[in-house]
Write a structure and sequence with these properties.
single chain; 358 residues; mainly alpha; 0% strand; globular
């Protein structure tokens, strides 16, 4: 059988058209399958919960003592399941560090032995999880998850040490990924390297060269950026340079900032607090107010903002308003959103009271 040139072209065109149609159908099928999978995952996580109104605020009847009691209640009732978080592919170490951080601040507040023993019993099962190799998976996770969890992995070790637990096994496991951690420092930002540098010092670890050059980094404090420079991320970065200088509240004094740096912070922090108060961003407001506590900027402006945040604690002990996310992620919103805001708000109240009434 022979084909004319015209017949061949027509046949080729038909085959090409069919191939394009098949590819298009395949893409649409994959897209539909992916959409169906995502929809199924959302339905599984949302537990079919409808949109809820914001949690009720305690209001003007709240006191610092009640803040601590309410936060303790929230922490004790929080359904925090490491296996669940890990199996969903979320940043388990990040959320775990926030969970433990909440209890460290409560531990700092409650100095009576009975309450501290209650705290120890609450976190004992979580400590035991760190005594098994399955928890120490940092050598096996991909780079994306390693980046999300790396600082928190070191922080968890630090938190347990601060809470009085034996970290010898944790430290042994850390050494297995130290080479990866050292190389990882090359892709971290300035404030992150400053914090990592403190952890390396705390655990007396040999440092990669890039950390050796991190002690004098001060980010936007060095360049004294104007208020207009600060979006949410830049404001967050600013706070963490201050946190690192004061060792996250462990130190009353600091040797990193000059008087010029402190004068700049005194000038820049109040307008930033005002900016994020207008946006009702209690998370960032709390971090900025904590910076003001650390640098002893606690005059009239601070007191007004302090009271505003005090009155915005939720009745269940949490801080923040993230109910708009509940239809999508269900009860996960507690550890994925409320937990961090509750931690940083509690931190501000704890550090202020500690410095006023040590």
């Amino acid at each position: 059988m022979t084909y004319s040139s015209k017949t061949f072209k027509a046949t080729f065109f038909t085959l090409a058209l069919f191939a394009c149609f098949a590819i298009s159908c395949k893409k649409e099928t994959k897209a539909a399958q992916k959409k169906e999978q995502v929809s199924e995952e959302v339905n599984q996580t949302s537990e079919n919960q409808p949109y809820q109104k914001p949690k009720a605020k305690v209001g003007t009847s709240n006191t610092p003592e009640q803040v601590f009691e309410n936060a303790m209640t929230y922490a004790n009732q929080l359904n925090f399941d490491l296996d669940y978080i890990r199996n969903k592919g979320l940043a388990d170490k990040k959320y775990f560090a926030e969970f433990l951080g909440l209890y460290l601040k409560l531990h700092k507040t409650y100095t009576d032995e009975s309450t501290r023993e209650e705290i120890r019993k609450r976190i004992q099962p979580f400590y035991e999880e760190t005594q098994h190799a399955d928890f120490h998976n940092m050598g096996a996770v991909d780079d994306r998850l390693f980046k999300k969890n790396s600082m928190s992995y070191m922080r968890i070790m630090w938190l347990f040490k601060e809470l009085g637990f034996d970290i010898s096994y944790f430290k042994e496991e850390f050494y297995k990924v130290k080479d990866r951690m050292d190389k990882h420092m090359r892709i971290r930002g300035q404030w992150q390297r400053v914090v990592f540098d403190k952890y390396y010092d705390f655990f007396e670890l040999e440092k990669p060269d890039i950390l050796e050059r991190s002690k004098n980094l001060k980010g936007p404090i060095t360049t004294q950026q104007p208020v207009t420079f600060y979006n949410r991320m830049q404001s967050y970065i600013l706070t963490h340079f201050v946190f690192a200088a004061y060792d996250y509240g462990n130190s009353i004094t600091q040797d990193k900032f000059t008087q010029e740096d402190l004068d700049y912070l005194f000038e820049i922090l109040p307008p930033l607090v005002e900016k994020f108060e207008k946006e009702e961003d209690d998370d960032l407001v709390a971090e900025l107010l904590t910076c003001m506590v650390f640098i002893k900027q606690t005059g009239d402006f601070f007191q007004r903002s302090y009271n505003r945040l005090l009155y915005r604690q939720n009745n269940d002990g949490s801080f923040g308003n993230y109910e708009k996310y509940r239809p999508k992620i269900g009860s996960d919103v507690e550890f994925r959103a409320y937990l961090h805001t509750t931690l940083v708000a509690l931190e501000m109240f704890v550090e202020y009271e500690y410095r006023m009434n040590p």
